[in-house]
Design a protein that fits this description.
Elements lengths: L9 H9 L3 H16 L7 H21 L1 H5 L15 E5 L1 H16 L6 E5 L23 H11 L17 H4 L5 E8 L3 H13 L4 E10 L10 H14 L2
Parallel strand pairs: 1-2, 2-3, 3-4
Length: about 240
Amino acid sequence: MSDNKEKKSLWQEFNDMGGMPLWMYLVCSAIIFTVVFTGSLGSDITAFVAVSFAIAILFNKIGKILPIWNTYIGGGLLMGIDRNRIAVGGHSAGGNLTAAIILMSIDRGTFVPALQILDYGVFDNKTPAVDRRNGTANPKLPPWKSDFYQKMYVDPEDAEEIYCSPGLASDAQLAKMPPTLMICCESDMFCDEAARLQSRLLAAGVPVYGRRFLHSSHGFVVQRRDEFEEAEKMILTALREMM
């Protein structure tokens, strides 16, 4: 009897084993060679990325064979990761992505992090800057520039989608959100939407630790200016006590 099993090339076998596209293997190889030949393996962030890429190939294969592996975040139990103490957070557009990730997890019924950190996030991509109460509060970010940036981030037809404008989510969705740290600043056109989201979360029974910084403007935390030290203390406190 003839063997009708399709023969695979060496590359196909390699791809089946790792499950990643060719360019990812090339990037992984380049990083590993770089850290090896510069003597930095195991001593800096580049080495960490290289090792992470390498073990991701193995984890991907294990996850296909044993789905429970993925349930615990790539073998988190074996790596000592407590999935009940995972937080997600972001500044500005990152705050938008954080809230969107949480909403998507809620809607899909999947893992929801224990804490979200929303630092002067963008939660309403529907309202033009010129129509906001403090749309001209920050001279470094006038309305025309804000709208220009917004067009690079958002297609107008998607502006009312909740994953684009998390502040438009329903009360039922917000009630399932995890404890939240909310940081906003008065000299920022996104201040009011953050305050509205905070009020809705509190009304829905979600624990919120929040503050409006009256003497700071957009970007003050990552740029380490104005009242950033107080905001950083809030972030560290939330990570210690809200999970």
